Amino acid sequence: MDFLILIAFGLALWAQSSVQGNFKKGSKIKASSNMTGVEVARRILDSEGLSDVRIELSKRGTLSDHYDPTAKVIRLSEPVYRGNSIASLSVAAHEVGHAIQHANHYSMLVLRHKLVPFANIGSQLAPFLLIAGFIFTQGSMLIGIGIILFSAAVLFQIVTLPVEFDASRRAKNKLIELGMIANQEERGVSKVLNAAALTYVASTLIAVLELIKYIMIFRGRQN
Fold it and tell me: Do 80 and 88 meet the contact criterion of CB atoms below 8 Å apart?
């Protein structure tokens, strides 16, 4: 099991490197539409009737792009906001995909939002409970509670996968539908979006394997 977790960690590192590499490559390819990320985001939003969703410049640096559903704001990093590359368009469109999901009450996004408080509690308390359970000889109950809490965090990550893949699907479809990328640019867009999705797959795999490991330890102590 430890070996599998190490492999998953290796996959996660490779996925993160792939995201950065594909973004850098995509950043060097100017989009034929010559539109910037903020222009693409605004156009897709308006085409969906989402004029109430604002777009702001993120101050967190590169690859800090995200959609804030509570404020209805898409925050784009400067390379994406001002850039007119394939990478900039891809990332901007992906974040708009989340805004569209929010507006359409996409079921998996709704579920993810409901899981947020449980996932936060699980990710904060589970490590302490699990460590305490491993230290004390009679700590099986602590391990069991820790596993339950950790399961909430893992479930959140699992639910995140279809949310991210669906946002990427919506992004690519809107870029094509609105003529913001040419046929020969579709492959580059796919590479950027797929690399980003792979990071979520890797992190989820790590979490699932860790959960299985804790369950096996718990069952071992029970026996």
Answer: yes
The DSSP secondary structure of 184-216, one letter per residue, reads: GGHHHHHHHHHHHHHHHHHHHHHHHHHHHHHHH
The predicted model scores a pTM of 0.86
Q: For residue 204, what pLDDT is reported?
A: 87
Taking residue 55's Cβ as centre, other Cβ atoms within 10 Å add up to: 20
Tokens found for residue 74: 């898409």
Q: How many residues would you count in the chain?
A: 223
What is the distance between the alpha carbons of residues 221 and 92, in angstroms, rounded to a whole number? 49
- 66: nearest Cα among 167, 161, 149: 167
* Euclidean distance between CA atoms 34 and 136, whole angstroms: 62
How high is the pLDDT of residue 16? 66
Q: How far apart are CA 163 and CA 38, in angstroms?
A: 22
The pLDDT of residue 190:
92
Residue environment code for 64-93, b if the CB has 16+ CB neighbours within 10 A, otherwise e: ebbbbbeeeebbbbebbbebbbbbbbbbbb
pLDDT band of residue 18 (cuts 50, 70, 90) is low
Which residues form the catalytic set? 95
- CA dihedral sign of residues 17, 20, 24, 25: positive
Single out the residue of 112, 123, 73, 70 nearest to residue 95, CA to CA.
73
pLDDT at 143: 86
Tokens representing residue 117 in the block: 């408080």
